[in-house]
Each structure stands twice: as C-alpha cells, then as structure tokens.
C-alpha cells in the first residue's frame, strides 16, 4: 500500500466518522473526558518529577533547622552565614526568611522570601528580570521581585501592590528563573520581612547554599550538618529537590497516587474505542464484504477499521488533552505544602504524550475488530 | 491455441460444497462451462439451484471445493487471498441484486471506491468516475447520497462502480430482481449496451425471462448441473 493510497483510505475512514455524526460525537466526548483526566494526572506527575528529581544542574542545598518542616518553626541565626561560607565545596550562600500565607497543603500559596538584596544576583545569577531592575529593587524598602508564574496567577505587574500573610509589598519587577521555585515566590528585602513578620533581626528560616559541583551535594550537606551538630540550633541539610520531597511528603504521596487515576482513564478510553469500533464493524459486515468484492484486499479493510479507531483516539485525544492544558493554563494551580510549592503548568511533553497515547489506544482498540473484519469469508458476509 | 479462441472463463469439473452442521450441501457438482469472450450469458434456474454460488466462483469471491476455474487461460482457484483480491480489482465488476452502495458516500464517492487503491492521479480518477456516471446517465446525480436516489438509479450507480476500473468481466446477481419494470428495462438496456458497444463479457443470474431475453445465451442450472436453454 503506497502512502497516497493509505491517505485516501484514511480519508474514507474519516468520511465514515464524520457522516455518522451523533455516534462519532458521543464516542469523541467519552474519549475526550478520559484523555482530559489522563492529561491532568500526567501534568501533575510531570510537575512532581520536575520538583523532586535531582539533575546534573542541581547545585542548591537547603539548610533548615533540624526536625522542623514549617517555615514558621525553622529558626536559624544569621551568623551561620559566615560559617557556611567557610565550608569546603560551598560557592555561595544566601540567608532567607520565609513567610507564607498558609503552612498546610494548599492550592493557593503565597511565599515571601526575604533576602539581603545585594546577595540575590550573586547567589542566583541565572535569574532574569522580565521587567524592572535590581537597582530599582535595592533602592526600595517594601519592593518585591515577583516570580513570573506567581505574577501571572495573581495578575500582577510592576507598580502593583499586594497583601498576603500580613505583609504588604509593591511589585518593582518580574523575574524568570530556570529554578521553578524562584518563579513562584516574591523576593523582598530581608530586614523588611523581618520587621513585617515581627521576627528578630538576627533570625532567618533557612540558608540556601550553592555548591561547586553537583557531585558534592551530599558531601557538603553532611559537612554542614556536622559543623552545627553541637550548636543550640542544629541543622538539617538536603538538596533543594529532596527538601521539597521531604517537606511536602503527603502531597507527593497523594500526587503519586493519582497515577492510578491516569491508568484508569487510559483503560476507559481503550474500552470505549474498542466497544465503538466493534459495533461499527458489526454493523458493516456486508459493506466490508462489498469492498472486498470490489478488489479491496483484507489488509485494506483492516486498515480502514484501524484508521477509524485511530481517528477516534486522536480526535478525542485532541479534545481532552487540549481542554486539560487550557484548563491548567487558565487556572495556574500552585500546589503547596509546608511552604514548598509546585506549579502545575501546561506542557508540550504532556501534549505529545497524551496525543501519542490516544492514537495508540485507538489503534490498539481497533486491532481485534479489524482482524475480524478482514478474516470473514466474503460470501458468508454477503449473505447476512 | 490462439488467445482469442480461449474462452474468457472455463470451468472444469467444478464442485462446491458447504458444510451446514452435520450435513454437506453441494450446490455445484461436476460442472463444466465455457464463457466465450464478449458473451452475454444469462443463468436461470430455481431458487437454491446454485446460481449465486457459481457466479461467486467465477467472480473469485469464493473458491471451488474441487475442479479448475480458468480466467483467460490462467487458473484462479489457487491464488492466495491477496492475489485473488488484486485479480478481482483488475478483472471483475460485481453487480448485486440490492445494489450495496455505501450509504454514507455520494454516488461519485461510491463509484470512486474501486479506483482508490490505484495510485492514479486525482484528476484522472475524477474523469473516469464522471465518465462512468455519464455512461449510466447519472452525471447530474453525482453528489447525491444513495438514500436520495430511486432503486433503479442506485442500481445504475452500482453498474458505474462495477465498470469504472474497466474490468473485462461483469457479473450480476439478479440485477433487476428488486426493480419495477421501467427501472429494470433501463438497467437491462445498459447491460446490453455494455455487452454490444463495449465488448464486456457479462454473466447475469436472473429469474426474469424478460431479462434473460436480452442475453446472447441462456443456461439453466438444475440441482448443480447445467442444461442448455433456447435463446
Ligand atoms: N455460504 C454458504 N453456506 C452454506 N450453504 C450455502 C452457502 N451458500 C449457498 N449455500 C447453499 O447452497 C445452495 C445454493 O445456494 P445459491 O445461493 O447458490 O442458490 P441460488 O440459485 O442463487 O438461489 P436463489 O435463486 O434463491 O438466489 C442453497 O441450498 C444454499 O443454502
Ligand atoms: Mg442467488
């Protein structure tokens, strides 16, 4: 079968679908609903993987107070800063005071990070300013540099003011960073946040430490915890992503569980297309025999059936996955727990995987009916 | 032998039996038949005498239990499924009693069906479909769906579909069985013209003596055997 013949047969399968409008619409709606679920679950999994899986570019350690998980209870003295800088393998350190509007699991988290303004560009040189400038930010007192996802979710732009967690700030710029956490927070001056949250001037929530190379993350983490073990405020140091996985353990477990929902949705799509195609083929026994009488080989008839299944899968997939990504893009969910956040965003990878899966499910669901259709003896089918 | 002397179809000692549960039904038994090139042959006989069975064997949609069926000197009964399908596409046009048009396709699209497997350019395909529809007098109904056509018109579309790929053999199983007199006459006139003007070989099963009268030769099938009938 040449590609042009295959294309014509697909056109024929498309006509069969588009001219049985109600039946096709109902099947597409069902497949779309299943693929919607699948794509939402897949986006969650993708976001979780990104937030927790360590890669070669991960150079950041989070130094937290031992056995504390909420930013409100983790307290470390700011003078650890100089000690941390002296530890072998450490490139940069930044003290951070964190204030969140909600410490539990939540879908709408606002996180303030109070940092010494001069340290931020040095610590995180890969943060890019989408609008505003560091100079403008440094010269303010209550100015905030806002991560672009956070800004988009709240509809914020430079010049706006907003309140959260009892803190009122002015947006002086938007930032974009390859590190997902940066895109979901508001950076403010450390002293300002200390005052606003009535915490002592010598006190921060955590230190973020950038190491020299990713192979030494664990060694440096151990060295840090050893250094402060006998202090009154001992530390617990994790790579940033492991810290997220640790702090948001329930959230991670819950999201991990949703993969079963995704699997169920995929199975439902398979069953739906299989049922639809089986009924289609049953109703078209004689028609397929006529095509074979005209000289269509069995494999052309099989191809027509698989084509119909594939188009149903692909069409329903486009509807469902498209709707899911639009839904996520529109809502910009930010999952948070214990001050850690994870944005669930529409992603091309999910689009590609969802459409691919829908196509494969549709084709596979049609395989058995196609086999039946192409094997039936022509004369027997004509006599029905 | 001179190829033009070879009959287009030659059946030698053909037998066809079906197993129906425990019993064996044998609608065709030791059958010999030659159909010369260009002949318009009518097959008659009582119901159940094996007419459709014989037609299906000659059209290559069924296989004999034993015996030989030659087309143009080539035996076809042992061709693989795939080769037989390709052979049908090139050599046979089949006309059914109940037309069997694809209901969701227009007249044009139905007639186009046999050409879709051929890698011919779209333009040529369109011209051939239009020519076939013009030949059956339905060029103006090209974009109508089967449900918008009368029975006679549907059968003429089916004839266009059978001839569009230019097969040398046309087989028709009671093509007028479901039509009123006028529609039947127009279908028979068409078959007659295809035989006389276009030199197609036609084998037609019919119960209707008026239809048989259009043919060059009439054969009667009786309990699986052939009896020559008067013209
Ligand atoms: N696929 C089949 N399986 C079992 N029996 C069959 C099959 N095809 C035909 N027969 C039997 O073979 C016999 C001849 O059938 P056939 O259809 O050829 O008759 P016919 O002459 O065309 O009859 P009619 O005029 O009613 O169309 C019948 O008894 C029929 O039941
Ligand atoms: Mg019959």
The residue fraction in helices of chain A comes out at: 40-55%
**Class derived from helix and strand content of chain B:** alpha/beta
Tally the beta strands of chain A. Answer: 14
Helix content of chain B: 25-40%
Q: What fraction of the residues of chain A are assigned to beta strands by DSSP?
A: 15-25%
Largest sheet of chain A: 10 strands, mixed
Quaternary arrangement of the chains shown? heterodimer
CATH superfamily of the domain at 38-58 and 90-228 in chain B, by name, is: P-loop containing nucleotide triphosphate hydrolases
What coarse outline of chain A follows from CA principal-axis ratios? Answer: elongated
> What Rg of chain B, in angstroms, do the CA atoms define?
18 Å
Instruction: State Rg of chain A.
Output: 28 Å
Distance between the termini of chain A: 29 Å
Order of helices and strands of chain A: HHEEHEEHEHEHEEEHEEHEHHHHEEHH
The structural class of chain A is alpha+beta
